[in-house]
Amino acid sequence: MTNMHNIEELESQLSQSQNGDTSFLRSCFNGLNALTGIGIVSIPYALSEGGWMSLIALFFIAILCFYTGLLLNKCMVSNPLIKSYPDIGEQAFGNKGKIIISIIMYVELFLVAFEFLIMEGDNLHNLFPNVCVNVFKKNIGGKQVFILIAALVILPTTWLRSLNFLAYLSVGGILSSLILLSSVFWIGTFEGVGFHEKGDVWRYDGLAIAISLYTFCYCGHAVFPTLRTSMKDKRQFPKVLLVCFVLSTINYGLMAILGYLMYGEDLKSQVTLNLPTKNIISKIAIYTTLISPITKYAMIISPITTALEERLMRRNNKLLSIIIRTIVVIGTVIVAIFVPFFGYVMAFIGGFTGISASILFPCLCYLKIKRESRNFEIELIFIMVILFLGFVSVVVGTFTSISDIVKHVS
Question: Keyword annotations for this protein (predicted)?
Fold first, then answer.
């Protein structure tokens, strides 16, 4: 399938090198950048949905995703020609495996792209709640207006064929999450909010949403194979994964605990929407959150737009390329306007594409590639348990998130 190199292009922007010369420290930085994303703003809401005991699920999912990352590494060790996640699918299940994994990845990229727009609309509306536009005697709410404005700002960046500059900007993702975490801690400690909320020990009815949101935070498996390929010493890749998962889990765990102690059951889908908008620290946190989508949106949709160009363009045509990319942006804007539910959409991404790509596919591919081995009977039992739990989580999480979206749309 000729579109696979488009995903590899996105992955290579994160790993910065395909020549096997990336150091251990640089690889850790790149891995953290892959695991650190917009999930940081929703992790307190996830905890409020599941209660304090759901933190066990967060740590359990982190361990599972770390383990399935190791399974991807074992798959790559079996064949030095494997360079990307779709290559693993092809090695295991032929061209069909490659296509299925690619489709899941494209769907996830599109969903994340319009999640960026929802985030922009929500946070800008939080800063400027009184904005309203009258078009043909019909009032358009501020959130929809800000989604359109954000899309107009982002649109020119999608016309760039080379994303090297945008890739350079996007490495600020780790710094952004640290600034956000520090800002939330500062507001809770010094701005009169405090950490007084007790919360619920256990919320069974919200556990499915919580698990889906937790899984979203660890959806980095698409870039792990390319990250490994870029390393100077590929034997250190398991150590890189360990460092990345430990540090990202500490980051997510701290943000979840701080946010839940501050706002309890009043937490919104993004913790930035709870922050007081009049003090400078809150504005720093919100503006930091707003910058990330602008710098990453074009990179996220690049594999989709490049794939469409290869299908629809027989030769290089800049005007047609701009039209195609603009149409994709318009598509994400339309979905963001009509389905502006950040938390539920993120839960759907985590529950469907996240669990599929981060838990199910690594296990299935590993079992198929290692099917002739006779030395992994105990591991086989463990993987079968993971697959069972994964399939149940996909069904329950996807059904719950879709039900919530439909309920709010209607």
Answer: Amino-acid transport, Membrane, Transmembrane, Transmembrane helix, Transport
Residue 141: strand, helix, or coil: coil
Q: What CA–CA distance (Å, rounded) separates 265 from 205?
A: 14
Alpha-carbon gap, residue 172 to 178, rounded angstroms: 10
Span 15-65, pLDDT tens digits: 444 456 778 887 887 788 778 778 899 999 999 999 999 999 999 999 999
C-alpha–C-alpha distance, residues 209 and 287, integer Å: 27
Rounded to the nearest angstrom, the gap between the alpha carbon of residue 348 and the centroid of all alpha carbons in its chain is: 11
Say which residues have a Cβ less than 8 Å from residue 393's Cβ, sequence separation at least 6: 208, 211, 212, 215, 351, 355, 359
How far apart CA 361 and CA 391 sit, in angstroms, is 11
Domains parsed from the chain with CATH numbers? 20-409 (1.20.1740.10)
Residue 140 carries which side chain, given as an amino acid letter? I
Q: Does the pTM of the predicted model rise above 0.70?
A: yes
DSSP letter for each residue of 278-327: SSHHHHHHHHHHHHHHHHHHHHHHHHHHHHHHHHH-SS--HHHHHHHHHH
List % helix, strand, coil for the chain (3-state, nearest 5). Answer: 75, 0, 20
Record the tokens describing residue 71, joined without a space: 């399974």
Contact in structure between 333 and 148 (CB atoms under 8 Å) = yes
Tell me, what amino acid is at 255?
Answer: M
For residue 375, the one-letter residue type is: N
Structure tokens that stand for 407 in this block: 């309920």
List of residues 6+ apart from 52 with CB closer than 8 A: 199, 200, 201, 202, 260
Cα separation, 225 vs 230, whole angstroms: 9
DSSP state of 18: S
